[in-house]
Amino acid sequence: MSHELLVIETVSGLAEAEILRGLLESNGVSVELSYEAALSAYSVGIGRLARVELMVRADQAALARQVLEDYRTGALDVPAAPSDDVVD
Q1: CA distance 13 to 68
Q2: Is residue 16 part of a domain?
Q3: Residues 6+ apart with CB under 8 A from 5
Q4: CATH number for the domain including 57?
Q5: SS3 (DSSP) at 27
Q6: Do the domain assignments include residue 34?
Q7: 44 pLDDT higher than 70
Q8: Which terminus of the chain faces fewer neighbouring Cβ atoms within 10 Å, N or C?
């Protein structure tokens, strides 16, 4: 098993990075975030300080890229929200 980490995505801001991390982890991909210390201290960054890299193990990179692609194209299978109209 490879423990090498690969950057699969760079996003602007910690909030977006955390959303994508949750998406990937819910699909079985372990994720590490890499960002400037100033971003964690202030929660807001501009330019280079706002960049967050999503890193995954090399052996999970293909799965991670596919999950992100499916998310962006709407192909990701997401369960529908429960309806209030359901009658038992």
Answers
A1: 17
A2: yes
A3: 32, 55, 56, 57, 58
A4: 3.30.70.1530
A5: coil
A6: yes
A7: no
A8: C
